[in-house]
Amino acid sequence: MVSIWFPNLLSDWLATRKPELKGEVFVFTKPERGRIIVTASSKEAEKQGIFCGAILADAKAIVPNIQCFDDEANLNKKLLTRIAKWAIRYSPFVAIDLPEGIILDSSGCSHLWGGEEKYLQHILAKLNESGYGCRAALSDTIGTSWAIARFGKKLPIIAPNEQYNALLNLPPIALRLETNSYQRLYKLGLDKIGKFIQMPRSVLRRRFGEGMLLKLAQALGTEEETVKPIIIIQPYEERLACLEPIRTKTAIEIAIEKLLENLCNRLASDGLGMRSAELKGYRLDGKVTLTKIGTNQPSHNIKHLFKLFQLRIDQIEPALGIELFMLTAIKTEAMLVQQEKLWGGKPGLADQNIAQLLDRLAGKIGPQAIKRYIPQAHYWPERSLRTAVSLEEKSECSWQKVNPRPMEMLKNPEPVQVTAPIPDYPPMNFRYKDELHLIKKADGPERIEREWWIEKGEHRDYYIVEDEKGRRYWIFRSGHYSEEKSNWFIHGFFA
Amino acid sequence: MKTDKEEIVAQLKKQILETQGFKPAPISNTEGFGLGSLEACFPNSVFPTATIHEFLSENLEDAASSEGFISGVMGKLMENGSPCIWISRNRKLFPPSMERFGVDPQQVIFIDLNYEKEILWTTEEALKCEGLACVVAEIPDISFAQSRRLQLATEKSGVTGIILRKQPKYARSATPCTVRWQIKPQPSEMVDEMPGVGNPIWEVNLLKVRNGVTGTFQIQWLEDKFASFDQKIALAVLQTKQAG
After folding, report:
1. With 0-12 CB in 10 A as exposed, 13-18 as middle and 19+ as buried, what is B233?
2. Helix/strand/coil percent split, chain A, to 5
3. Does B125 reach chain A within 8 Å, measured CB to CB?
4. What residue of B is the nearest CA neighbor of A408?
5. Which of A229-233, A249-253, B164-168 has the lowest average pLDDT?
6. Across residues A283-310, what is the average pLDDT?
7. Which positions in chain B touch A365 (Cβ < 8 Å)?
8. Which ipTM was obtained for this model?
9. Which one of 3.40.50.20, 3.30.450.20, 3.40.1170.60, 1.10.2020.10 gives the CATH number of domain A2-138?
10. Which B-chain residues 154-213 have CB contacts (< 8 A) with chain A?
11. Looking at the record's lineage, which domain of life comes first (chain B) (predicted)?
């Protein structure tokens, strides 16, 4: 087991991002109980005596022009995960060891780098290169590696079954004990592990609890210790290298089919479906063709997905030929469980046929052309509906049913000339597109106020009117009636 | 002798219809679309579904009436919960208004396109999809071949296709549609000269019915269903309602 310790993880990370900070005194701080506490400090700051846990005011007394940065929650975890993912090249088993270390299982790996010593040197050199100061140790157990990495003074590599001797000269804090346990040990003068390691277990258990014995046993290797390794999720990606560069449509189709087969089988076994995918074709002349598809419902149906790609094949330009195809599922979602139906029921919008049809349409004409409307809680006619985000979306309000709405509505109301002798009465006639309509019947007014919190302007008084030929219109007066100047508009046509 | 002949002709007509794919009315569907005497014009007196209907409208007012009538038909077709697709260019249809004609606007998918070519392609693709109740496409002019393609698609999938031809250039061009309609608004009626606008009333012209007869009818939308409109009967009904 290899334990790697990053004494100045956060400050080293910041220094790699802001090179001007290298060699400067700076700290990360976090407010806690009304004070500002240092949570991490740079190497230079540590040299001045500013450590983690100090109060910022004290630190400023030591170094007046100290630079402070806000400590983001879980930043160290994020950084360690990133380093651990990188370190997977040295061992298939890598775990993060909060707050500032990682653990590698080196068994069966170190000989690939020419022995344990070279293995460790290589890892440390690489980490140092990227700007992280670190120490590492290798031993049979996690506990001993941890202790040697942080407190060891001699060789970092402990020979098999030598944990006992390696631990003798280390302070008790190296055993990863709880604060009050090791404080009590110091109080009793037991400042080295060697001073109490021989004591009877019952004596130690009575004074320091079972936890300390466990840690000791884990460091010595008599108790097992488990850690959770990080798992790198393999991207849903398939490659197909071609023996000969591909130029024809048929060949591209075969390639897509093969890739989809592999990818969909993998998705199906994981219970996933893709929502969007891209196909890259690496051409002989070094250019890359890119084709993207998207679906309305997660799908791993090879036939359906193939159809979506088929619509786009014409846009793939093979030029001299394509050498390598790469298919990636960019977005995947858990598959919706489809109930097998004995009798065809009432599927409605959830019907897979319809989702697949819409996918195909979206592939050809673009998804922005396809709309579905759901009601919105506004009286203003233009705002009484909005486009739904998905096929499943349901509105929390319902359509207003009190007043009928016109079958056809003009995008922008068009002005009409009217004869309206009496206020708050429908007009006698109106002229629209050079045709005079005599109003025979009318309903209204229905006053709709403008929503002042959205936009400013006049209210509208709507009338449903029917002319002498039975044609029905929706007209409105903008604002209040005035004898000289009332603005009338036509806004729609009723059935 | 004469009755024998008539019987034979009726029998033969039935056989012709059957060979052309028109099945006799299923017993469960006796209610029909509520279009009354209009439905007698159709073969076997059944509103033909799974075929192409054409609606002609010369101006905006006619278009609004046609859309109202189409919504009523759609509402009937969508009763089993299947959705519908409305394909158009420069759509003016205001979805909330369909609620009045028995259509849940949330069940309608609108596709707004810019080119006729795209509309035709989309309509054909949609007509091939079996989960839909009907597909409405706003296409002003359609050639015989294009219309035939759509007709074949509907026959295969069983989806009803409606082509709304707004301000067509060649209104009388030959297309293989089953029914060609023209809907015009008519003055509404109120009891006792009461003020206000009444229920929508339309003059429905059947310009062409394959294997059927044409005719002109007065149809109104009475609260939540179609009803044939006769001035005297309508007045009497309304009066009794008010008296009650």
Report:
1. exposed
2. 35, 30, 40
3. yes
4. B93
5. A229-233
6. 87
7. 111, 113, 118, 122
8. 0.85
9. 3.40.1170.60
10. 185-188, 190, 195-198, 200-202
11. Bacteria
